[in-house]
């Protein structure tokens, strides 16, 4: 259960993936987390890693984003209030799947398979590699390094501390179905928004501008008030922790809407595919709101 006096943050899989790339680069070079990307690249080019891992800095921009994310979270962790950091099991699975794809790509690269063919992912099971070494170890290392840096990652679905572990997951699913009556996003995005409400978190860190726009509109946009009211009503019927959070905000003299998480996509990563959030309502959506 998050502490009421600490900053509470939920990370999506894209943020975790960026952290994974950055911290893996630091580890490969032997640099301390927090080192600038340019410094890492200069050290990389002058090391033996440039020959053994030529692909390490193939996406310098993603590593740089990971470094920005690390700095943002470290700042929160080192603040006087401290930080409770969460990620969903779904995000854990997505990052592990990404590590698996990297392992496949490395194997094909070693066999001189051209990039244009590798990008089509032609092989799904024909390539053999050590899963423990290529996936389990990097994932465990990521969690360990984050914890050493004061960024201990907790499992969102376990926050209730229920003896029956499935209970927390069921509440998350119920919340997802509830908010799906209020607005529409991609399935996983809806689920993570629900997770951010159930815990509840102060900030949902996501690279998805659309998700952040929806979360911030619910919290602050007057044109979205009917939708926000419906979200609060649906969540209050499901989650005692959410009801308590709303009461605590009102006792502080704050609006009930301040109980809703803030969304952040301050890294300005463009949304791929141009998806549009839709409000699930019989009435026409407000003019300022995205609609399909």
- Tell me the Rg in angstroms: 21 Å
What multimeric state do the chains show? single chain
How helical, in percent, are the residues? 40-55%
The chain-level structural class is alpha/beta
List unreliable stretches of 5+ residues. Answer: 266-292
**What is the ordering of alpha helices and beta strands?**
EHHHHEHHHEHEHEHHHEE
* Termini separation: 38 Å
Enumerate how many helices there are, as a single number.
12
SS elements, strand count:
7
Major β-sheet, in short? 5 strands, parallel
Q: Describe the strand arrangement of the main beta sheet, using strand numbers.
A: 3-2-1-5-6
Instruction: Provide the domain count.
Output: 2
Structural overview:
- The chain is an alpha/beta fold and 292 residues long.
- It has 2 domains: 7-155, no CATH class; 160-279, no CATH class.
- The protein contains 12 helices and 7 strands.
- The protein has helices at residues 13-29, 37-45, 49-52, 60-77, 89-110, 115-118, 131-148, 165-179, 187-198, 209-220, 225-238, 240-251, and strands at residues 7-11, 83-87, 153-155, 183-184, 203-205, 262-264, 278-279.
- A 5-stranded parallel β-sheet has the order 3-2-1-5-6, sandwiched between helices. A two-stranded antiparallel sheet has the order 4-7.
- Helix 1 (13-29) packs across helix 5 (89-110), helix 5 packs across helix 7 (131-148) and helix 8 crosses helix 9 (187-198).
- The longest helix is centred in the middle third of the chain and has 22 residues, at 89-110.
- It is globular, with a radius of gyration of 21 Å.
- The two termini are 38 Å apart.
- Residues 266-292 have low confidence and may be disordered.
């Amino acid at each position: 259960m998050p502490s009421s006096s600490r900053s509470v943050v939920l990370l999506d899989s894209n943020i975790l993936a960026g952290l994974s790339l950055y911290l893996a680069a630091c580890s490969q070079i032997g640099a301390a987390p927090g080192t600038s990307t340019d410094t890492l690249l200069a050290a990389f080019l002058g090391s033996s890693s440039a020959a053994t891992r030529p692909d390490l800095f193939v996406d310098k921009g993603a590593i740089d984003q990971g470094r920005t994310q690390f700095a943002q979270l470290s700042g929160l962790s080192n603040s006087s209030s401290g930080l409770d950091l969460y990620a969903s099991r779904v995000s854990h699975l997505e990052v592990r799947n990404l590590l698996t794809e990297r392992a496949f790509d490395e194997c094909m690269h070693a066999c001189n398979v051209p990039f244009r063919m590798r990008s089509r992912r032609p092989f799904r099971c024909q390539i053999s590699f050590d899963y423990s070494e290529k996936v389990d170890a990097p994932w465990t290392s990521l969690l360990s390094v984050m914890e050493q840096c004061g960024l201990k990652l907790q499992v969102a679905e376990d926050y209730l501390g229920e003896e029956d572990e499935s209970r927390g997951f069921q509440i998350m699913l119920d919340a997802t179905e509830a908010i799906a009556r209020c607005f529409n996003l991609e399935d996983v995005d809806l689920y993570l928004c629900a997770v951010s409400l159930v815990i509840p978190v102060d900030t949902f860190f996501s690279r998805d501008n659309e998700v952040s726009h929806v979360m911030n509109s619910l919290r602050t946009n007057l044109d979205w008030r009917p939708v926000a009211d419906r979200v609060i009503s649906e969540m209050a019927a499901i989650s005692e922790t959410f009801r308590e959070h709303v009461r605590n905000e009102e006792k502080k003299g704050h609006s009930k809407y301040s109980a809703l998480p803030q969304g952040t996509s301050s890294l300005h990563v463009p949304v791929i595919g141009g998806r549009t959030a839709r409000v699930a309502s019989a009435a026409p959506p407000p003019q300022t709101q995205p609609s399909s």
